């Protein structure tokens, strides 16, 4: 019921969780980050990761220098009634001290570099209606290739003249028809005390990966580069539809406390229909129809 009520009272909202299936009753393994060793049962750890993602996701409309407002961002993401959006993050962004942004993204050409944080399972679907992607903690010198004049570029990314164009070109290779807003800032995410030191020892104090053969760092990491994505994604069609089907099978009369709180069965059925309608906002032409949903609710 919370999802439907939030959709009716907000321009857009993003459920964030390290649990891959927080919108359902089945508990899956928590989200994993290649360079973070954390304990998902500790609020100290999980809240740090989610706060890092949230702090980065909201940069485009929080900075005084930004020309993007929160209203403009939500208008892009919530078209056609798509009020629910997903969040993803790369914490930390795996950049070596001698790397440039084109170098790192070229190593990620076959897969997306981020981890889903919106309780939607594994976000393997590369389809997307609209997205806002933020890259922080990369210096202007590292945002573009240091290609010598007349030199041969290793990829199309190495030919891009600005960091925004590097990131935009990379995103178009994965999302060719998606409206993408990109934002780069050189300010890294500070992770000094009391932030948990759960990073692998392959990072130096500036959050940069050390090359092979170097002695693992013993210094505490003080700052890290982070990449985030806020997306309106077709994956929410199946997620919300599955939630609708799962809740539709519940017999509310077995949950006396739920009914004693004042919930009316008719109101609950209305909310279910609104949830089903919300899921249809994310349906693409070739997605499976909802005939099974109709049979389940009969």
Count of helical regions: 11
- Element order: H for helix, E for strand: HHHHEHEEHHEEEEHHHH
Tell me the span between the first and last alpha carbons.
Answer: 20 Å
* Unreliable runs: none
User: What Rg, in angstroms, do the CA atoms define?
Assistant: 21 Å
Mean pLDDT: 85
Shape: globular
Which strands sit side by side, in order, in the main sheet?
Answer: 2-1-7-3-4
Structural class: alpha+beta
| Major sheet characteristics | 5 strands, mixed
Annotation, overall tally of beta strands: 7
Amount of helix: 25-40%
Strand content: 5-15%
Describe the protein in words.
- This protein is an alpha+beta fold.
- Helices cover about 35% and strands about 10% of the residues.
- The protein contains 11 helices and 7 strands.
- The strands form 2 sheets. Strands 2-1-7-3-4 form a 5-stranded mixed sheet, with helices on both faces. The chain has a two-stranded antiparallel ribbon with strand order 5-6.
- The protein starts with a helix and ends with a helix.
- The mean pLDDT is about 85.
